[in-house]
Write a structure and sequence with these properties.
This is Ribosomal protein S8. The chain is of the alpha+beta class. The chain has one domain (2-95): Dna Ligase, domain 1, CATH 3.30.1490. Helices cover 16% and strands 46% of the residues. The chain is built from two helices and seven strands. It is globular and about 35 Å long.
Length: 96
């Protein structure tokens, strides 16, 4: 199964592809604009909705910008949207 998308929020993601052969999947993301650092986690860290803000403060070097990317039951969301929807999930990575 291959899913492609171009309608990404905030203008940081130019394009992405999700390739999911059965259980182990791969997400390829093409970023645009000025990104200082981008980390993908090789392990999926579970996070509750109430703990997202603390994780963001601990992980990102600045409060002004940067996003934690979380896979939730509502789809792949940045930390702001996950907090708005009160949805926890697994941390995929972050960029700033």
């Amino acid at each position: 199964m291959l899913v492609e998308g171009t309608n990404c929020p905030r203008g940081y993601i130019k394009d992405f592809q999700v390739y999911d052969p059965h259980r182990v999947g791969r997400v390829t993301v093409e970023l645009q604009g000025r990104v200082n650092d981008c980390k993908a986690l090789t392990y999926r860290q579970d996070i509750k909705a109430k703990d997202i803000e603390a994780y963001r403060l601990r992980t990102l070097p600045t409060r002004q910008w940067g996003y934690v990317v979380i896979t939730t039951p509502d789809g792949i969301l940045d930390h702001e949207e996950a907090i708005r929807r009160n949805a926890g999930g697994q941390v995929l990575g972050y960029f700033h």
